[in-house]
Write a structure and sequence with these properties.
heterodimer; A: alpha/beta; Rossmann fold; six-stranded mixed beta sheet; four-stranded antiparallel beta sheet; 15 helices; B: alpha/beta; TIM Barrel; eight-stranded parallel barrel; about 15% strand
Chain lengths: ~400, ~270
């Protein structure tokens, strides 16, 4: 059989990415790609974006050394505090950028998908601040397990549409948002929350989240007399907080980079979200990327205690970084993540989101599992705070 | 059956009513009977969907049809088996397959095309592989003799329309509305769109998305469409009969056949 060249034609990362969407969405993607290219790097836009990140979102976020946790982990751990960003997670960086872009494109309505609810909250906040009508699609199952975030979205004036189809989680919320957009693209911007989806979203969202890595690198150098960290790590669901951090360090070969996927109930079971570890290349939500799928190409249900990591796909740039070996993707399970949630709270007084707790759990296990040598310096993206997870923690895990 | 059969069908008659069915909906056996009933009641083409977990371009009725089929345990190999049974029963009726990209990508484009050509498909529409990304799929279609269909819509500009028109060899599938299948929007707009597109392209046009009545079918042909496809409405008919008929196969086939008879009247 002849080998077919699978490399996508639009916005590819090697063999991954592309625009695998219905023709009905192509005009919207072309329009967005033009705006990305022509507006995003223009002086007036950058000035407005940076001013809003500073005044409204609270940038720059600090780096925090965590000595007690570090002693337990036998590492020198530093956290990039995206949990202190307005809204409580890194999602706000992307949302501010896309909302300002959408306003310049003349859009009046925002739609978004959300898993853990952090992106939904961030979009609802931006909708309120920048004057958009806002609709958030959220899996009914996620809406139940992240009820506080649903209340925050509604308080900010967004309408929350609970999606009952499929697994009633993030994947299904994206399907529904894409369906809305096919009908509404004239006046509506689909504010996609992660580095997934069709081109230009993976590169657009990366460009808006790159501030995390850029700031971190300068701050770490300042804190450590000009040095770089030995390693950096971030949790990976769709992968936007990870790409944001990694972008600042990809060109530094001495820095080991780790992406931490959700092993859920164990990667030997069917209950996990370790797309890069256990998936195979496929087409999902507009991109060619690693996907959890059966032999026929039906998409499998993923699982993670962290709703924001509970997704059977991953951003196409991560797929490319996996294949090239530049980033090592590992997985930690629900139990280890809950333990890390507890541990960071008790040792440092910092409550991580369940998603972020996966990166914390990576640090806790890194020496024991041979991922890092004892005493290594490790910069972790503290992507979000855990307030939203308290109900679930005290109900199911305390 | 390949692209040639489609060309013969266009030569034989100007207008075709196409019934859309999800393969295996609501069960494999009934699916074959429903296809037969559609043709007995005036459908001269069939559009057959592969059940998929995430049919993003489809509205609720066809999503539910996919769910019914998958709940009946219909995998892709079984869906291809249902296609082969329909082809055996209705060898002369062109069958356009509607398949989401990942199902084609998983076994490899060429391997997938070979399998469905073997099972009697005449052409293929993959709604989430647009022109830019369609090169490898087009090569596989050409090598296997499977006709290629591409979607165009209200937002497809004239230049792009011409590019797509010259790229495909089967027909253009025109979405009459900006949205997903089964949506209800302004009727006049979709027929005006069809008239506008018709004058700009060489390939035959199939109109779909939001057609649900005999009047829609009649207006499709009046506006220059060669194929009128009704999908969501027929999926709703199956749904109601399946729920209400408590699984009485004869009754479901009757109700479905009657719906096709009314819809196909303007084509005869």
């Amino acid at each position: 059989m002849t080998q077919i060249d699978n490399a996508p034609q639009c916005g590819g990362f090697g063999d991954y990415g592309g625009r695998f969407v219905s023709e009905l969405l192509m005009p919207a993607l072309t329009e967005l790609a033009d705006a990305h290219r022509e507006i995003l790097f223009s002086e007036p836009f950058l000035a407005e974006f940076q001013a809003e990140l500073a005044e409204w979102a609270g940038r720059p976020t600090p780096l925090t050394r965590v000595p007690h946790f570090s002693t337990e982990a036998r590492l020198d751990v530093v956290l990039k505090r995206e949990d202190l960003l307005h809204g409580g997670a890194h999602k706000t960086n992307n949302v501010v950028g896309q909302a300002l872009l959408a306003r310049r494109m003349g859009k009046t309505r925002l739609i978004a998908e959300t898993g853990a609810g952090q992106h939904g909250v961030a979009t609802a906040m931006a909708g309120a601040r920048y004057g958009f009508e806002t609709v958030i699609y959220m899996g009914a199952r996620d809406a139940e397990r992240q009820a506080v975030n649903v209340q925050r979205m509604e308080l900010c004036g967004a309408r929350v549409e609970r999606v009952e189809s499929g697994s009633a989680t993030l994947k299904d919320a994206i399907n529904e948002a894409l369906r809305d957009w096919a009908e509404s693209l004239g006046d509506t911007h689909y504010l996609l929350g992660t580095v997934c989806g069709p081109d230009p979203f993976p590169s657009l969202v990366r460009d808006l989240q790159a501030v995390i890595g850029c700031e971190s690198r300068a701050q770490f150098a300042e804190m450590y007399g000009g040095r770089l960290p030995d390693a950096i790590a971030a949790c990976v669901g769709g992968g936007s907080n990870a790409i944001g951090l990694f972008t600042g360090f990809l060109d530094q070969e001495s820095v080991k980079i780790f992406g931490v996927e959700p092993a859920g109930g164990g990667t030997h079971t069917n209950r996990h979200g370790a797309t890069l570890g256990k998936g195979t290349p496929g087409l999902l939500h507009g991109a060619r990327t690693y996907v959890l799928q059966d032999d026929d190409g039906q998409i499998k249900h993923s699982h993670s205690v962290a709703a924001g990591l509970d997704y059977p796909g991953v951003g196409p740039q991560h797929a490319s970084l996996r294949d090239s070996g530049r980033v090592q993707y590992v997985a930690v399970d629900d139990t280890a993540s809950i333990e890390a949630f507890r541990s960071l709270s008790r040792t440092e007084g910092i409550v991580p989101a369940f998603e972020t707790a996966h990166a914390i759990a990576f640090a806790a296990q890194a020496v024991e599992r041979g991922w890092l040598p004892e005493g290594a310096s490790l910069l972790i993206n503290m992507s979000g705070r855990g307030d939203k997870d308290l109900d679930m923690y005290f109900r199911d895990h305390a | 059956m390949t692209l040639a059969s489609l060309h013969s069908a266009f030569a034989a008659r100007p207008h075709h009513f196409a019934a859309f069915l999800v393969l295996g909906d609501p069960t494999p056996d009934l699916s074959v009977e429903l296809a037969r009933a559609a043709v007995q009641n005036g459908a001269t083409m069939l559009e057959l969907g592969m059940p998929y977990s995430d049919p993003c371009a489809d509205g609720p009725a066809i999503q539910a049809a996919c769910d019914r089929s998958r709940a009946a345990g219909v995998s892709t190999p079984q869906a291809i088996d249902v296609l082969a049974r329909i082809s055996a029963a209705l060898p002369d009726v062109p069958k356009n397959l509607l398949v989401y990209g990942n199902l084609v990508h998983a076994p490899g484009y060429r391997a997938f095309c070979e399998r469905v050509v073997g099972a009697g498909a005449s052409s293929l529409l993959v709604p989430d592989i647009p022109l830019e990304e369609s090169g490898p799929l087009r090569a596989a279609c050409r090598e296997t003799g499977l006709g290629e269909v591409q979607l165009v819509g209200p937002g497809t500009d004239p230049e792009r329309l011409r590019e797509i028109d010259s790229a495909v060899d089967a027909f253009l599938y025109l979405a009459g509305l900006q949205g997903v299948t089964g949506a209800v929007q302004d009727d006049d707009a979709k027929f005006a769109l069809l008239e506008r597109v018709r004058d700009q392209v060489e390939r035959p046009i199939c109109l779909g998305f939001g057609l649900s009545t005999p009047e829609h079918v009649r207006r499709t042909f009046a506006a220059g469409g060669r194929i009128a496809v009704v999908g969501s409405q027929l999926a709703r008919v199956i749904d109601a009969a399946w729920q209400g008929g408590a699984g009485d196969p004869a009754k479901i086939v009757d109700v479905f056949g009657e719906a096709c008879r009314m819809l196909s009247a303007p084509a005869t």
